[in-house]
Amino acid sequence: MDDTAGLDVPPRLLMGPGPITVDPRVLRAMSAQLVGQFDPFMTEAMTGTMALYREVFRTANEQTFLVDGTSRAGIEAALVSLLEPGDRVLVPVFGRFGALLREIAERCGAEVHTVEVPWGQVVPPEVVEEAVLRVRPKLLAVVQGDTSTTMCQPLADLGEICRRHGVLLYCDATASLGGNPFEADAWGIDVATAGLQKCLGGPPGSAPITLSPRAVELIEARTHVEAGIRDDGDTDRGTRIASNYLDLAQVMAYWGPRRLNHHTEASSMLYAARECARLLVEEGLDAAIARHELHGRAMVAGVRGLGLEVFGDPAHRMSNVVAVHVPDGVVADTVRAALLDDFGIEIGTSFGPLHGRVWRIGTMGYNARRDAVLTTLAALEQVLRGCGAAVPAGGGVGAAREVYAA
After folding, report:
1. First and final CA of the chain: distance in angstroms?
2. Which of 96, 155, 361, 381 is the most buried (most CB within 10 A)?
3. Which of 150, 158, 22, 15 is nearest to 96 (CA)?
4. Residue 67's domain is classified under what CATH number?
């Protein structure tokens, strides 16, 4: 690449676990000109974005807004603002991203306990409750959809367990929000964070977040005199939040009527996040979830129609991404490279014990549509044939079309 030349991005169909091909309407929104961060248009756009994401999270939480940064910034903002050194945290781990929650909580100085199951399963609620009774945590931190395994952890029972035992519930919904059922209020979730680059159909760089009144009260009780948020002189209200940028008490004051000058809002990402939510609300949450389920089901039928085996417990698979066993005698990365070079299609590998053993194929956001599914299956068939794999002619496309015809 000539670094002095203009950027010429090659055409790609991103059918991996994320990021995905951005909806063109979101790209158009991002191209809008900037205004000042306290311009009336800007503050109205921020307020409107908060309202839209209340619908997306299905919550009445006043404190629903954006953290500037990728989805991991939202995760870190939640945990660094909720946790103090020595707090007990329980993390159900069923893939890479549960392990990430464990690491971030440990960096906050928390005493972290885990319950773990083999990759390809989810953690039964009775196992979680037994651990809650044993550990007595302040916080249960869980991933809803872990793309490393493509498993989707049921949450309603966990919310009930947390309410029964006085435990806060945090959920990382980065990979699942907008494509799988999510009910922040009905399920008793105190804090949830997400990202745009999966089912929401946008680019990475903005992290929607919602906080229950109980979580807000806990965060605001911590010391913020130096930041100008508290003015009662009480400096003995808990350990100061370690991060300034990710201090949710200050970020809430920035998004609220005070408009605290905490940071400069990432305006183009705000435009993108607003459009992602607007499109989802316009489509209807139930309709969007049904769309992801349909195209995900067609993709699963298609890979099985090619004679490939799907990884993990089918009863708890995310609707928007499927993990596919690599057939014997086929090199996983060779297939991925050929799909990219010959067809401009990207699919994913995985991590840890699954690296090189499965491909992860996403049908999410803008790419949860018929032509993207059929094109990917047709290309995958040709690449597998080129690698010497015996696959039924037209088996993938044919099986997917049967799903669409039903």
Report:
1. 47
2. 361
3. 150
4. 3.40.640.10
The DSSP string of 303-357 is HHHTTPPBPS-GGGB-SSEEEEEPPTT--HHHHHHHIIIII-EE-B---GGGTTT
Q: Per the domain annotation, does 70 fall within a domain?
A: yes
Mean pLDDT value across residues 240-268? 92
Which of 230, 246, 281 is the endpoint of a domain? 281
The residue type of 395 is: G
* Distance (Å, whole) CA 214 – CA 232: 21
Gap between the Cα atoms of 261 and 255, Å rounded: 10
Pair 256, 291 in one domain: no
- Domain extent for 310: 285-405
Do both 118 and 262 map to the same domain? yes
Domain co-membership, 291 together with 341: yes
pLDDT tens for 141-171 read 999 999 999 999 999 999 999 999 999 999 9
In the three-class reduction of DSSP (H, G, I as helix; E, B as strand; rest coil), residue 88 is classed as strand
Q: Is 272 inside any structural domain?
A: yes
User: Which amino acid is present at 326?
Assistant: V
Structure-token pair, residue 117: 């199951």
How far apart are alpha carbons 73 and 28 in whole angstroms? Answer: 25
Partners of residue 191 on adjacent β-strands: 170, 211
Query: What is the edge-to-edge ordering of all strands in the sheet holding 168-172?
Result: 63-68, 206-211, 191-193, 168-172, 139-143, 88-93, 111-116
- Report the b/e string of 75-93 with b at 16+ CB within 10 A: bbbbbbbbbbeebbbbbbb
305 and 275 share one domain: no
**Domain end marker among 221, 249, 281:** 281
Q: 131 and 226 share a domain? A: yes
Q: From residue 147, how far is each of 16, 129, 176, 288 by CA, in Å?
A: 10, 24, 9, 19
pLDDT digits (tens, 9 = 90+) for 11-44: 999 999 999 999 999 999 999 999 998 899 999 9
Q: How many separate domains does the chain show?
A: 2
Distance CA 401, CA 339 (A): 21
The whole-angstrom separation of Cα 133 and Cα 136 is: 6
Q: Let me know whether 166 and 88 are in one domain.
A: yes
